[in-house]
Amino acid sequence: MKDRIYVCHTFYHVYVACLKELALPKERQGHATLVLSTMSNPFGNLGERAGNCPLFEEVVLFDEKEDVFFPELKKYHTDRGNLVVNMLARIKYTKLLGKLQEPYVPVDFKQYKDIYVFCDSDPIGYYLSYKKIHYHAVEDGLNCIQYYDTARYDNRGHFGLKAFLAAQNLIFIQNGYGKYCMDMEVNDISVLTYPCKKYKEVPRAKLVERLTEEDKDILVRLFIEDLDGLIGQLNQGARQKVLVLSEPLCDLKVRRQIFADIMEEYGVIDGKPAQILIKPHPRDVLDYQKEFPQHIVLNGRFPMEILNYIPDLSFERVVSVFTVPNGIKFAKEIVFLGEDFMDKYEDPILHRQNEQIARRQ
């Protein structure tokens, strides 16, 4: 029986997996398996670097398939206008998606004592429930359920009934409602509107506080492929610096306008233009170097928290739209724009998930 395995879908997930490993006693470190799902995020050569770092015994790529990959699932997405009929179709969909995923799963999860899954809303959650394998769910982003409770929003309307069916493993609901999800690690239970008996508070700040200088060096070397090049970009110019965190919002045309507006409004410090650096989101395909050649575009393939561990690094301001910036320690000012800002670019109803949930409970 092997010790631990982490299923990660983003660079941030890998970062949290590293924090969890580094919080263990030294003798227990280095015996975990890291699974990188390539379904929605290209990890580049992170897998190779992770395989060479002291935290993981094995690194495996997972060719996880979205449900749209399987044409036989399409018919189950039809709303038949009847709750009972829809639930029967969903029961069939739940089992079939788990079964269809099986040929692409690269490891035998039954060999592991502890399985940690980030984003169990993805097909891996359906697969583990189909195989009746117990696992721990881990919050996708820092306090992300506070801003978007996907389990309740995706199942708005008769949520109590659906949660009951999920607890019987007839359908699947993410984030602590599935029968085989043992617990759901969240950063801060106090900020969550709706309770779930499986929520387990694991503050990420406490994981960070444990880090030694050696631990921080491991993290930087794991995530930053060209450290000298990055430091050169960060130290370029003498002006005060503003970091803009991009996100894959709207279509490319609207997205360009969003970030052009952000840089115009927040790119000035004390009446003077600041030096703007853009960190693209790993799934953001807008070509920022082409669209904004006057600014510095960083390699986006690392979690922003890694910048905390680069000595003497400081920004006057960091600006994000929906990325929760609580983990940033390298900026004097943090600007979180949120839903009200996005109302200018999209239908405001799209940014009021929690309000819609409350109305449909």
Report on the architecture of this protein.
- The protein is an alpha/beta fold and 361 residues long.
- It is 34% helix and 19% strand.
- The protein is built from 14 helices and 14 strands.
- It has helices at residues 11-22, 46-52, 83-101, 123-130, 144-147, 150-154, 159-167, 204-209, 213-223, 227-234, 252-266, 288-291, 338-342, 353-360, and strands at residues 2-8, 32-37, 56-62, 112-118, 135-138, 181-186, 199-201, 241-245, 268-269, 272-273, 275-279, 296-297, 315-320, 331-336.
- It has a 7-stranded parallel beta sheet with strand order 3-2-1-4-5-6-7, with helices on both faces. The chain has a 5-stranded parallel beta sheet with strand order 12-11-8-13-14, with helices on one face.
- The radius of gyration is 21 Å and the shape is globular.
- It starts with a strand and ends with a helix.
- Mean pLDDT is 92; it is low at 355-361.
Mean pLDDT, to the nearest integer, reads 92
User: What is the share of helical residues?
Assistant: 25-40%
Gyration radius over CA: 21 Å
Class by SSE composition: alpha/beta
Which regions contain 5 or more consecutive residues with pLDDT less than 50? Answer: 355-361
Strand order of the largest sheet: 3-2-1-4-5-6-7
Q: What percent of residues are in strands? A: 15-25%
Q: Number of DSSP strands? A: 14
Secondary-structure element order, N to C: EHEHEHEHEHHHEEHHHEHEEEHEEEHH
Cα distance, first to last residue?
A: 42 Å
**Most strands sheet:** 7 strands, parallel
Task: Summarize it.
The chain is α/β, with parallel strands linked by helices and 361 residues long.
